[in-house]
Write a structure and sequence with these properties.
Pfam families: HTH_animal. The protein is an alpha+beta fold and 282 residues long. 39% of the residues lie in helices and 16% in strands. It folds into 3 domains: 2-89, no CATH class; 107-136, no CATH class; 155-281, no CATH class.
């Protein structure tokens, strides 16, 4: 926040009127490192944004009271505040370090759930063999309820998808499929396929492969979403990849062994990419 006092501009930490000043409780099931980081972040913000010493001391006193109100002992808060100020002073005086000609390899890090006091013992043992353990915050009741109650669009209303429609006819025991992509709602595109297959209404899907594939019964109502992509070129590449894998089209030209009704293989993908495509799409 910028204010003007005595014909000078001063800066201070700004808080909204609706702020709750909530922080993790000291006795919560959280690794101590996260509790220290919360205090350190507020201290860094106070030092960087408060232009006067008076405002900085007031802000640090507010931080001290806020965390003490949530169960943090002053013997835990004050050393972190002093250490943060000292680190910033040393960083400002330090000269830039010369480039290291032989950089050390990146450490191996593993993310594991936080399991209370035994996590620290496990972390010390892992450090002996060169592995850094990072704790994952445990799920709260709020996150569990929100994840279950989150509204999801029905499948027919999703857009920017690569989809698959199965037919009743089979090739070597597997159902024949149609792979397509659309930037509109899936329900709209499936309805156009249905009208094209029935031949009753002329629509934008009249050129669909289903218009000449009327010997079987496509499962329009059970269309599956294989992948999602917002970029048009990425959808074309994914469509071609699924035609080559799910539809078992091993060549660009149509063959009797194909398990799909697509007229072509979509975007041209070279055969050398097939092993990677199969691994990605299956």
């Amino acid at each position: 926040m910028i204010t003007r006092q005595d014909n000078k501009f001063t800066t201070n930490v700004y808080r909204k009127a609706c702020t709750t000043n909530q922080v993790p409780a000291f006795n919560s099931y959280t690794e101590t490192r996260y509790l220290r980081s919360a205090i350190r972040s507020d201290c860094l913000r106070a030092i960087r944004y408060c232009s006067s010493v008076k405002d900085r001391l007031q802000e640090l006193d507010f931080i001290r009271k806020k965390f003490h109100r949530h169960g943090y002992p002053l013997s835990f808060i004050n050393p972190i505040l002093r250490r943060t100020e000292k680190d910033l002073q040393l960083k400002a005086r330090a000269l830039p370090s010369p480039p290291n000609p032989s950089p050390l390899p990146a450490p191996v890090r593993l993310s594991v759930p936080f399991a209370g006091p035994c996590f620290y013992q496990l972390k010390r043992e892992a450090n002996k063999i060169g592995i850094q353990l990072v704790s994952k915050p445990s799920q709260t009741i709020g996150t569990l309820l929100c994840s279950q109650a989150k509204h999801r669009l029905p499948k027919q209303q999703e857009s920017n998808v690569i989809y698959c429609i199965e037919c009743s006819c089979r090739v070597e025991g597997d159902p024949v499929v149609y792979i397509g992509e659309t930037d509109r709602e899936l329900g709209t595109r499936v309805r156009e396929h249905r009208e094209s297959w029935a031949g009753s209404v002329r629509s934008r899907a009249n050129a669909s492969a289903f218009s000449t594939h009327r010997d079987c019964t496509p499962a329009f109502d059970d269309a599956k979403i294989l992948n999602r992509a917002c970029h048009h070129q990425m959808r074309l590449l994914l469509e071609s990849a699924y035609i080559r894998t799910v539809g078992r089209r091993e060549a660009v030209l149509v063959s009797p062994n194909d398990a799909n009704v697509n007229r072509n293989s979509g975007a041209l993908l070279q055969d050398r990419w097939l092993p990677i495509i199969r691994r990605f799409c299956r």
